[in-house]
Design brief:
five-stranded parallel β-sheet; 130 residues
């Protein structure tokens, strides 16, 4: 009897806060269908790791020094259209969600609601990749 192993969805997290990245690492240790394969602290690092790791999904901070999350999202989606990007931000500025979508983001989550909303975002992503 052959059992088919389902590969966990591979996630790359980008944020300039080491504390936030550590929190995400703890969160993903409890989610068997998802695997945090890497973290980065800048948009430039995100591009390098997206190429090296080829994650299924990137959780991208919006505001970072150097290349911001919008620019990094746009470049990742252009180079690797198979990689989905979810913007994670503390900001809620009118029109911001639309700008994120226009730059290639698949979804948008506020940091203040991350652990309430992220399971639903991940579930939608999981269903679309089944």
């Amino acid at each position: 009897m052959v059992q088919s192993a389902v590969r966990p969805i591979r996630i790359l997290a980008i944020d300039d806060s080491p504390e936030f990245l550590s929190s995400l690492q703890s969160f993903f240790k409890t989610t068997p269908d998802f695997c945090l394969v890497g973290t980065a602290r800048s948009g430039h690092e995100a591009l390098i790791l997206a190429q090296e790791l080829r994650p299924d999904l990137v959780l991208m901070d919006l505001q970072m020094a150097g290349m911001n999350g919008l620019d990094a999202t746009s470049k990742i989606r252009c180079r690797f259209p198979e990689i989905a990007v979810v913007i994670v931000t503390a900001h809620e500025i009118p029109g911001l969600r639309q700008v994120c979508y226009e730059n290639g983001a698949s979804d948008f989550v506020k940091k203040s609601r991350l652990y309430q909303d992220l399971p639903d975002v991940l579930a939608k992503f999981h269903i679309s990749h089944s």
